[in-house]
Write a structure and sequence with these properties.
393 residues, alpha+beta, conserved putative lor/sdh protein from methanococcus maripaludis s2 fold, 5 helices, 5 domains, five-stranded antiparallel sheet, Elongation Factor Tu (Ef-tu), domain 3
Length: 393
């Protein structure tokens, strides 16, 4: 340390001596100009000679190094096991058997005596249509039937007396049968203005309102039949090949407070065709206990796994966002954040790329902090400002 100070002082002295010599030369040059130049020029040169040593001394000092700029970077702590989350799906508790009820004729809905959540019994009146038109049709058909009955009665008497042929009587009897059928049809049409429940259950949805004109067969109410319950879920395209009917499942349903009820189940069915809008496959998960006491419409989390029942040990795979993967040619890596906030690139093994992130099987450990976004703007050893969940740490 002492030697460094001595060397610095020597260098400073050298600069000052050099500057003094230069100033002395300027003074001699000024004295030579004295006979030909005015006094003002001499004074200017003298001032320059005096200021020059100070300027050179100031320039000899080194400029301070520029401060390092910390780049903000989004980070996360590795901890969620990928295999544990990869087969978890959100769903809704539904009845296994549901019926969508509608009128068998069209008309204006004038009354609806059931709403969502109402318990209904088989044969109970649920809704009614305006019966004015069907009533007129029934009256007209009944009048035609009475006329046909009178005609047949009169022709039978005439046939007994020999005034009409048997074929004429047969024609009247045929007309009577047609009128009877028409009257029965009109009577049924009048009865169809009342919508009755065909099973005992609960109203799970209302699909038409009073005052609306509905067509024949248009859905008006949905009834969930009492009995077995199951969970309706949607399987993404990326998981369709790995999902098999009969797979065991663990169904998590929120109970009272913050507690969670876990019920064993199995995958009962999965649609062979994807939904046109969501591109997912509808699936149903049944409870192993057929009389599971769960309410309709409850939100459930379903974990599908070959070892879901046995609660086998979780595999050491970690799920990270796709934006955290730094691709080096055909190899993947992640930026590891050290305790001093410096970053270093570490190769990892990606076992699968999924819609919800990448599954890393080796290269990182639980509890390590990695950069989750902006990985292509970092350099090894760079100091970052840690951002987590939108807040600086």
């Amino acid at each position: 340390m002492k030697d460094c100070l001595i060397e610095g002082c020597k260098a400073e002295a050298t600069h000052i001596v050099g500057a003094s010599l230069l100033a002395n030369d300027l003074a001699i040059f000024a004295s030579k100009l004295a006979p030909t130049k005015n006094i003002r020029s001499m004074a200017s040169l003298s001032l320059i000679a005096l200021a020059l040593p100070l300027a050179l001394a100031a320039c000899s000092k080194e400029a301070p190094p520029p401060e390092k700029i910390e780049r903000p970077a989004s980070t996360l702590v590795v901890g969620a096991v990928g295999a544990d989350q990869s087969n978890v799906y959100s769903g809704e508790v539904r009845a296994r058997y549901e019926t969508v009820l509608g009128f068998r004729i069209g008309g204006k809905l004038i009354a609806r005596s059931a709403d969502v959540g109402d318990k209904v019994k088989s044969g109970q009146l649920l809704a009614r249509l305006d019966a004015a038109d069907t009533g007129l049709q029934e009256s007209a058909a009944a009048a035609q039937l009475r006329l046909a009955e009178d005609e047949v009665k009169r022709f039978r008497e005439l046939r007994d007396q020999g005034f009409v042929s048997q074929s004429a009587l047969d024609a009247k009897e045929t007309a009577l049968k047609a009128a009877a059928a028409q009257a029965g049809l009109a009577r049924n049409q009048a009865n169809y203005t009342s919508l009755l429940s065909d099973r005992t259950g609960v109203i799970s949805a209302t699909l038409a309102e009073v005052g609306q004109v509905v067509s024949a067969g248009q859905p008006v109410l949905r009834v969930a039949q009492d009995g077995e319950r199951e969970v309706s879920i949607a399987i993404p395209e990326s998981r369709f090949a790995a999902i098999k009917v009969g797979m065991p499942a663990l169904i998590e349903i929120s109970a009272t407070g913050n507690s969670t009820q876990t019920i064993a189940g199995h995958l009962r069915e999965i649609s062979p065709a994807a939904d046109a809008a969501s591109r997912t496959y509808a699936a149903r998960v049944s409870f192993d206990a057929g009389n599971a006491k769960v309410a309709l419409g409850m939100t459930a989390r379903v974990r599908l796994s070959d070892n879901a029942k046995s609660g086998a040990k979780k595999s050491e795979e970690f799920r990270v966002p796709l934006s955290a993967i730094f691709q080096q040619g055909d190899k993947a890596a992640v930026w590891i954040v050290a305790a001093d906030r410096s970053v270093s690139l570490r190769p990892v093994t990606v076992s699968a790329y999924r819609d919800d992130g990448a599954l890393i099987s080796s290269g990182i450990a639980a509890g390590e902090r990695i950069v989750s976004a902006g990985v292509h703007k970092l350099t090894p050893g760079q100091i970052i400002r840690i951002i987590e969940n939108g807040k600086a740490l």
